[in-house]
């Protein structure tokens, strides 16, 4: 008993100090005009309801109820922290554009634990800028045109040519295979099909499950397994790195690999630990997102025959022109001709919302539209809520690639929009300015152009070579990461070509009747 009293006396100054800090915070909060909202349970807040899975083409019940109750800006307690949630397009832009000045990237600690403390998602300030420069340099426009486009096409064909007539396959897994192989080649010159590449792919699956799971580091949990996978993956990357350093030192080794690993070793002063985290997180950022986007496009298109038909017509035109010119590989001019394809890409990203929100924190007291956002509070700009807002996008639940067509005509005089009547009442400028599938400001996705290129090239060969239907009903869910629970099983039918040896054939037998029904 005496010991307990002694302990209490010992702790009481700290308890008192904590209580005083709490009182001061509460007093400050009372004088502030915080947005309306509900802070939920102590510590847990409203996190469980916020993370409850829902259809990826909706904002989910939590968001819907909170917006109708409190408006587009509300307070909550999420991920253990007081948070301002924003479904307001203006505030979202304001947050992203003021990165480093008023707000700062702030992902949950568990993300840093798994992606590494040098991961770009976690870094802020000068170190983030340096890592970002390396990534941007490596995905520059010049590299996209000269180096990446042929690689993207090669990896697309590798996957598509493995599909057997009338077979059923998981579109999501096939898309992952494509984006993983591409990234592994581009980053570390690892070839698809080789033992080490396949082993790395397998480890990555476990790793990914942990990135998106609850951060419970207990034996057997997905997070715990992912941390183990992280060290296995890092060992593989480190081995590749040591191999490369040996080759670079070896005077006889003339050939230098044109990949990210070679580039960072030669042109940067990064430490081994930094290089490992950079590569691990680029592999993650670069394959997970674009594969989901491709699966979503496959899903939306099978449900919208009119869009699929127009897409196929666009690609047939390109394929015929290439055949006439005696060319066999796609080039940048072909890519630029894919105007409707870009509408399909934008619409897929708008409706599917691969990255639904990002994590930020206020680093200063901020006032916005009469509300106070206290320094230290988490801020979540929810892009999905804006992309699915009927005041910005007409019939937002409807897959309508034509809504983007006027944007293209206004930025390029060569467009021959025949479906402009389908464009809704919302102004194109409003749609564009509020469209943020790749985030924005100083942290705008470094791979956005590569992602669009991957989607366009994959769709080009897909629609020219295959028809498909859902083998089983499946739909995308937001966990909040987007995933098809059954992997999106599709049954594929090869489109008959007269000459199977070439990718391009003007004799593709398709009925391209005009359908008058919208999808
Ligand atoms: C459809 C596919 C993709 C989507 C929807 C997407 C979305 C995003 C978003 C929203 C962010 C901002 C995160 C934040 O602000 O906190 C981001 C960042 C990033 N993305 Fe992507 N991404 C895609 C594909 C790619 C690809 C193919 C790469 C290539 C490696 C890539 C590399 C990155 C990197 C390095 C960052 C961090 C940028 C920085 O912090 O400066 N992404 N991405």
Write the layout of secondary structure elements.
Blueprint: H1 2-31, H2 47-50, E1 54-55, H3 60-70, E2 73-78, E3 81-86, H4 89-97, E4 103-105, H5 109-115, H6 125-138, H7 141-160, E5 168-170, H8 171-188, H9 195-211, H10 222-249, H11 260-267, H12 272-302, H13 305-325, H14 332-336, H15 339-352, E6 360-362, E7 366-368, E8 371-373, E9 378-381, H16 383-387, H17 405-411, H18 428-433, H19 448-465, E10 466-470, E11 477-478, E12 482-483, E13 489-494
Parallel strand pairs: 3-9
Antiparallel strand pairs: 1-11, 2-3, 4-6, 5-13, 6-9, 7-8, 10-13, 11-12
Helix pairs in contact: 7-8, 7-19, 8-12, 9-10, 10-12, 12-15, 12-19, 13-15, 13-19
Bound molecules: protoporphyrin IX containing FE.
Residues 105, 120, 132, 135, 282, 285-286, 289-290, 293, 354-355, 358, 437-439, 443, 445-447, 450-451 line the site of protoporphyrin IX containing FE (HEM).
Cofactor: heme
Pfam families: p450
Subcellular location: Membrane
Explain this structure to me?
This protein is of the alpha+beta class and 519 residues long. The chain has a domain at 125-355 and 437-494: Cytochrome P450 (Cytochrome p450, Orthogonal Bundle). It has 19 helices and 13 strands. It has helices at 2-31, 47-50, 60-70, 89-97, 109-115, 125-138, 141-160, 171-188, 195-211, 222-249, 260-267, 272-302, 305-325, 332-336, 339-352, 383-387, 405-411, 428-433, 448-465; strands spanning 54-55, 73-78, 81-86, 103-105, 168-170, 360-362, 366-368, 371-373, 378-381, 466-470, 477-478, 482-483, 489-494. The strands form 4 sheets. A 5-stranded mixed beta sheet has the order 2-3-9-6-4. A 3-stranded antiparallel beta sheet has the order 1-11-12, with no helix packed on it. Strands 5-13-10 form a 3-stranded antiparallel beta sheet. The radius of gyration is 25 Å and the shape is globular. Mean pLDDT is 86; it is low at 409-425 and 505-518. The site of protoporphyrin IX containing FE (HEM) has 22 residues, from α6, α12 and α19.
């Amino acid at each position: 008993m005496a010991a307990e009293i002694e302990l209490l006396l010992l702790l009481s100054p700290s308890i008192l100090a904590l209580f005083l800090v709490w009182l001061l915070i509460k007093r400050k909060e009372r004088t502030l005009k915080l947005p309306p909202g509900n802070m939920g349970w102590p510590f847990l807040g409203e996190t469980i309801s916020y993370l409850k899975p829902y259809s990826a083409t909706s904002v989910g019940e939590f968001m819907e109820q909170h917006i109708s109750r409190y408006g587009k800006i509300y307070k909550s307690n999420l991920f253990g922290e007081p948070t301002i949630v924003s479904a307001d397009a203006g505030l979202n832009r304001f947050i992203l554009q003021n990165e480093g000045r008023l707000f700062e990237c702030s992902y949950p600690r568990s993300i840093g634990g798994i992606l590494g403390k040098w991961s770009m998602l976690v870094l802020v300030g000068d170190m983030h800028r340096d890592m970002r420069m390396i990534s941007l340099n490596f995905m520059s426009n010049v590299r996209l045109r000269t180096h990446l486009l042929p690689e993207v096409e090669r990896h697309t064909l590798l996957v598509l040519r493995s599909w057997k007539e009338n077979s059923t396959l998981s579109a999501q897994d096939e898309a992952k295979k494509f984006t993983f192989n591409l990234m592994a080649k581009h980053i570390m010159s690892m070839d698809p099909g080789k033992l080490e590449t396949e082993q790395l792919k397998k480890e990555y699956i476990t790793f990914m499950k942990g990135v998106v799971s609850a951060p419970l580091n207990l034996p057997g949990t997905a997070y715990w397994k992912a941390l183990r996978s992280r060290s296995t993956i890092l060992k593989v990357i480190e081995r590749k790195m040591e191999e490369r350093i040996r080759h670079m030192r070896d005077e006889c080794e003339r050939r230098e690999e044109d990949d990210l690993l070679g580039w960072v070793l030669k042109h940067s002063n990064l430490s081994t630990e930094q290089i490992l985290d950079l590569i691990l997180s680029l592999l993650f950022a670069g394959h997970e997102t674009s594969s989901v986007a491709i699966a979503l496009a496959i899903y939306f298109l099978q449900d919208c025959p009119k869009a699929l038909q127009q897409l196929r017509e666009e690609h047939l035109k390109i394929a015929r022109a290439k055949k006439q010119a005696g060319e066999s590989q796609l080039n940048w001019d072909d890519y630029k001709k894919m105007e409707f394809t870009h509408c399909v890409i934008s619409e897929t990203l708008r409706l599917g919302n691969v990255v639904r929100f990002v994590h930020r924190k206020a680093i200063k007291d901020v006032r916005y539209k009469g509300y106070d956002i206290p320094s230290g509070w988490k801020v979540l700009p929810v892009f999905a809520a804006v992309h699915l807002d009927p005041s910005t996008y007409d019939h937002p639940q409807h897959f309508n690639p034509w809504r983007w067509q006027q944007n293209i005509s206004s930025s390029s005089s060569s467009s021959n929009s025949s479906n402009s009547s389908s464009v809704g009442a919302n102004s194109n400028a409003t749609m564009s300015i509020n469209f943020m599938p790749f985030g924005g400001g100083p942290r705008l996705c470094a791979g956005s152009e590569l992602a669009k290129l991957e989607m366009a090239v994959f769709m080009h060969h897909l629609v020219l070579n295959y028809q498909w239907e859902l083998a089983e009903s499946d739909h995308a869910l937001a966990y909040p990461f987007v995933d098809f629970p059954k992997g999106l099983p599709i049954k594929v039918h090869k489109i008959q070509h007269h000459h199977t040896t070439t990718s391009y054939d003007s004799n593709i037998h398709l009925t391209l009747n005009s359908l008058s029904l919208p999808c």
